[in-house]
Amino acid sequence: MSRNKSPVLAVDLGGTKVLAALVSAQGDIIQREYCLSLAKEGPESVINRLLATISYILDKAKLGISQLVGVGIATAGILDARRGLVTASPNLPGWHNIPLRDIVKSKLGVSVYLINDASAAALGEHRYGAGRDVDNLIYLTVSTGIGGGIIIGGELYSGVDGCAGEIGHMIIEADGPRCNCGNFGCLEALASGTAVANEAVSRINRGEKSSLAELAEGRFENITAEIVGVAARNGDHLACEVVAKAANYLGIGMTNLVNIFNPEKIVVGGGMAHMGDMLLEPARRVVGERAFQLPAGRVNIVPAQLGDDAGVIGAAAFVFEKRHN
Amino acid sequence: MSRNKSPVLAVDLGGTKVLAALVSAQGDIIQREYCLSLAKEGPESVINRLLATISYILDKAKLGISQLVGVGIATAGILDARRGLVTASPNLPGWHNIPLRDIVKSKLGVSVYLINDASAAALGEHRYGAGRDVDNLIYLTVSTGIGGGIIIGGELYSGVDGCAGEIGHMIIEADGPRCNCGNFGCLEALASGTAVANEAVSRINRGEKSSLAELAEGRFENITAEIVGVAARNGDHLACEVVAKAANYLGIGMTNLVNIFNPEKIVVGGGMAHMGDMLLEPARRVVGERAFQLPAGRVNIVPAQLGDDAGVIGAAAFVFEKRHN
Question: Which ranges constitute the DSSP H helices of chain A?
Fold first, then answer.
């Protein structure tokens, strides 16, 4: 395999699973594997599973480590890019200043690059997905939490320490509900999948009627944003209101992004994006009503295209571009 | 005067006054003049005064128009940079899609560049003021309104249409008070000089005691943010609370900027910045409490250095750099 055909091994390390993939310089996935993160077992155990998944995929592809351009790891959390640390990660318990880059590098003997998972997805969508045709975009992933990535002038913007883009932790209700990050009134606390599920459960607990109780077979812990979405699509009144409320907050967050960045696109990925126009159409309406006319008229708010692969594809692009420079 | 010593004629067009200055390539002000905007008389009349001020300053400096590198105009409002329009400006009544660039260009026969006033101030502070030593900064001007400017990688970021940076119109209270822009709960509606004055007046109107009534000689329309600042410095309880409330909201706005941009500095200018640490210290505390630790520990929140000249100095830098490229 000649150097310019060498792939990157990209990993998307999340709270639920570790997705690893061999990705070509054209952004194609050559091979893909995943295993569960079992994050509760702590960093050491998670990192061992990550390394095992990498070995497995290399074996399967009959590739040696030296045939890789490098390894890119997309991780949820606040990364210190310069020092290669995962400083904190709400969905990875026990991860505080873990030198993930150097641990993996010393085990594998190959160049390793860390990138925030939403930043990686932003880069992936820009290079190969919904943002291919523009230079300035904001990517939002709306799922359990809300992550963000910023592309400016065709390049990923990641700030001085590499931790920019925490759009989910933009405060839009100064005294709003508590967020996973410890703060109050963050976009994530109001418009994420978790927020949608919590809102539905608390309204049902207050005695409001909804088909959700039935859909969840009476077990409120079964109520997820996905189930709320299904109920809303079937016309359940409470579910419709809960989705509309989240969409309104999402629109407020987007209004801020439009006024601050005047971007060409906002690309929306993550599990909640599967709700499609039920979520995006009211959000677009809020932007039309609350953002300045010129940038509101400019921006296209569109669903992401790469699905769950955005993170590994973007992490691979990140490595190819770093190695190239 | 040789070409490389030629100055730029820079104008800062605000709702209250038109400030014009001859600025050298080193950022020094050679000559400065101003006249009142008398904005209520409408665009034509304001533009005539702007042109007259330019003529006056050129006469006084014994310079012909051909000896200028160009003219830079910093203007409050939403500009369409590509088309040279002032699309809307809350403090300039009647300005809707006014082709200011081409009007001035056709009258003077010289290259004219438009730039948002807060963006100009951001550029000025970056090139010659409080931001000289960093590559990534956010500039905030807190006065009658709140404007913003974004410097990324040493360059002004202005978005696709040139209207990025409207940080004052970031919503931080989804259902907050109405803002001048027509929206609700913007940072400007909660932390600007206008917000401070309004809050003080409405509390006094509700019967609360304060030395402000006396300071304003019983005329509530005399109560400005400046007077509230003086009263707070003298220990007036109500004034202290009003300033603290605005500082808290300012800190929330800065928290969002820190989480989104991971900048090296936030530079604060405008009339309210004269309150100094009375305003900035509580805002810094909020950032320390509510932003992520890594970017919160990185950012320096500092007062601006160029005062009222930031706009013309920045507009001049903008023209020098455009003409150079």
Answer: 43-61, 100-108, 117-128, 187-191, 193-205, 212-215, 225-233, 237-261, 277-290, 293-298, 310-324
